[in-house]
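Your task:
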Amino acid sequence: METYFKDVENRLRIRKYDIQEIDGESVYVETPEWKEYKNSQKTLYCLSSSNLPPHVAKLTLDDYIGKDRDKIDKLKLYVEKFEEKFHSVHLYFWSKENGTQKTTTASIVGKLLLEKGKSVQFVLMGYLLKVLSEEKFNPEVTETINKYRNCDFLIIDDSFDKKKATVYKSGFQIPFLDEFLRTRLEVQRRATCFSSNFSIPDIDEEVFGLSMKSLIKRAIPDPFLFSSSYELRNDFNVDDLWS
């Protein structure tokens, strides 16, 4: 039995086992460092399989830097009571500006649910549009789409942004997305989190359709507004630095 773990480039060396006396016998016991390393590798693997960004591996909701703690407390409860209460409750994170931690916060919620044994997937709405419209002609994408259809928690990033999703003038892709969302949100009622630079009332009806806009409004009565980066800078009080 190898006592130490070394990575391929020998940059990391971790003692895997200690010898302890238990009931008069010498036995190998995993070290805390080895357990922590195995857990971190498992987390990274799960994040990769779910398409979640690896930088959230060690982040928690308490790493959110905004002042609206009420939002974070609600999300902590959402994760804690997901199985009993929130497995069919959808989230909508929005801000008119980038850099307000919408995507990171959604990804942290996803990571925490992964740790609870839930299946999670992360997808850009532009890519979701693409594969949904291809499925009829390319059955190979069905396996990918089924992951999005059937996971416990789906994060759809860059939602309803026509600049980040190719929507043709004919709008032929929109019925595919409408059907997907309608089935997931209202029929299957599987928790879905949207991250967007548009409020629900500002979803472009000409591009995404009144039907889809009404669906989102009906399914998500309590969107989460993230403070803009400008507001976050101006919320800072220099006196807080020394408190």
Remarks:
- The chain has one domain: 54-233.
- Residues 32-49 form the longest helix (18 residues).
- The two ends are 52 Å apart (CA to CA).
- Strands lie at 4-6, 13-15, 17-22, 25-30, 91-94, 120-124, 153-157, 191-196, 224-225.
